[in-house]
């Protein structure tokens, strides 16, 4: 076997590692390696995107969901969840408010809620694009057919987030009921890419039963998929789920993986997630310093925020959108970066004609 220094050198120079090398790197990581990779990773992010951090305004428009994922607080089996749906008018008002605050990407996220038919989603996409043609629209509404994805794209949606959750079908089966499969999830991602979306995949760090081998397979899957965005954040237990008593993922491993991902996929858009900010008060700042370059503050009306309850103790559920924007501007400014009013496209998509 090889040593950790030659693996980090190979990662930094080529962005490629074998499965065994990734496992060795993860198993033998130490503080020195972590800070070395964080420096290289943030340097790489700055090389392509400068000192900028892109913001996405997140509208959590429904917490109804037909799925029963074992980790998720809004799973259909959670009878304690306080369900809500925003109206089309409320969604458009949030988007306009976000626009006024400087957001040029609106992310529509929700559970898999049959109330929002393709037609309703298409109308919402069209209305946002009509009102704000310089905004990108990102969808994060789960697994749909090729035709549905195509209809959303044709209506003007630019991007789609669908975390693969775990690349290993056996691990996937431990996190989800048998109605859901890793194969279908991956097929959705390939469909989204083929249609032309800037596509985002990703996984939870420290999810129950996750092994270093699983993480290696996640990284290799991401390298192969080559998505425009990658969302990773620590697993955080939710009191009303099967995994209520499980341990949360760690800040340390999440930061380490952000750096490895930045070095494996240098131009990817990589958020410092809300979950990262939830397990540590400076988690998001540390994420940026480890190679992340996106933050996704909440634009949902304050009245529904606590209800979009994926995991316990989620931050920013009491703040207005403007407060979060100011807070983030300060936080990002304090570490020498700047939030910009920009769509923040992946550089490989910037000049691509739709
Ligand atoms: N902890 C952390 N992340 C979670 N997600 C869902 N439940 C949890 C949890 N308990 C993540 C999933 C999903 C995304 C929207 O939120 O990865 O894809
Ligand atoms: Fe919401 Fe700081 S980002 S209060």
Strand-helix topology:
Blueprint: H1 4-14, H2 19-27, H3 31-49, E1 52-55, E2 57-62, H4 88-101, E3 105-110, H5 118-131, E4 136-140, H6 146-154, E5 159-161, H7 169-175, H8 182-195, E6 198-205, H9 212-225, E7 229-234, H10 251-264, H11 274-279, H12 283-289, E8 294-295, H13 302-305, H14 321-334, E9 338-340
Parallel strand pairs: 1-8, 1-9, 2-3, 3-4, 4-5, 5-6, 6-7
Helix pairs in contact: 1-3, 2-9, 3-10, 4-5, 6-8
The chain binds 5'-deoxyadenosine and FE2/S2 (inorganic) cluster (FES).
- Which class in CATH terms? Alpha Beta
Helix and strand content put the structural class at alpha/beta
Helix tally? Answer: 14
How far apart, in Å, are the first and last alpha carbons?
47 Å
Q: Which strand-content bin applies to the residues?
A: 5-15%
CATH topology, what is it called?
TIM Barrel
Name given to the CATH architecture:
Alpha-Beta Barrel
Main sheet overview: 6 strands, parallel
Helical fraction: 40-55%
Mean pLDDT reading:
97
- Give start-end ranges of low-pLDDT stretches: none
The tally of beta strands, per DSSP, is 9
Which cofactors or ions or other ligands sit in this model?
A: 5'-deoxyadenosine, FE2/S2 (inorganic) cluster
Spatially, the strands of the biggest sheet line up as: 2-3-4-5-6-7
Descriptors:
354 residues, alpha/beta, six-stranded parallel β-sheet, three-stranded parallel β-sheet, 14 helices, 12% strand, binds 5'-deoxyadenosine, binds FE2/S2 (inorganic) cluster
């Amino acid at each position: 076997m090889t040593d950790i220094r030659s693996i980090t050198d190979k990662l930094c120079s080529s962005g490629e590692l074998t499965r065994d090398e990734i496992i060795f790197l993860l198993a033998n990581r130490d503080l020195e390696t972590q800070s070395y990779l964080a420096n290289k990773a943030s340097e790489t992010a700055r090389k392509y995107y400068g000192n900028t951090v892109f913001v996405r305004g997140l509208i959590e428009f429904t917490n109804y969901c037909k799925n029963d994922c074992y980790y998720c607080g809004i799973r259909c089996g959670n009878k304690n969840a306080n369900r809500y749906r925003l109206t089309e008018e409320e969604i458009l008002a949030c988007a306009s408010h976000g626009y006024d605050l400087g957001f040029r990407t609106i992310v529509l996220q929700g559970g898999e809620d049959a109330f929002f038919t393709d037609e309703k989603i298409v109308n919402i996409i069209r209305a946002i694009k009509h009102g704000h043609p310089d905004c990108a629209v990102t969808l994060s509404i789960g697994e749909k057919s090729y035709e549905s994805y195509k209809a959303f794209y044709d209506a003007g949606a630019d991007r789609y987030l669908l975390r693969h959750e775990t690349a290993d079908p056996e691990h996937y089966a431990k996190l989800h009921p048998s109605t859901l499969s890793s194969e279908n999830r991956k097929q959705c991602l390939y469909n989204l890419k083929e249609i032309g979306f800037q596509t985002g995949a990703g996984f939870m760090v420290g999810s129950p039963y996750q092994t270093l081998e699983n993480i290696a397979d996640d990284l290799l899957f991401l390298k192969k998929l080559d998505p425009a965005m990658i969302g990773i954040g620590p697993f955080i237990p939710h009191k009303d789920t099967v995994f209520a008593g499980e341990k949360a993922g760690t800040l340390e491993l999440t930061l380490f993986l952000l750096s490895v991902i930045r070095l494996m996929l240098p131009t990817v858009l990589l958020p410092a997630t809300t979950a990262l900010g939830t397990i540590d008060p400076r988690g998001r700042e540390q994420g940026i310093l480890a190679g992340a370059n996106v933050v996704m503050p909440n634009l949902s009306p304050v009245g529904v925020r606590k209800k979009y309850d994926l995991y316990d103790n989620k931050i920013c559920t009491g703040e207005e959108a403007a407060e979060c924007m100011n807070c983030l501007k300060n936080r990002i400014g304090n570490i020498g970066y700047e939030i910009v009013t920009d769509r923040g496209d992946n550089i490989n998509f910037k000049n691509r004609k739709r």
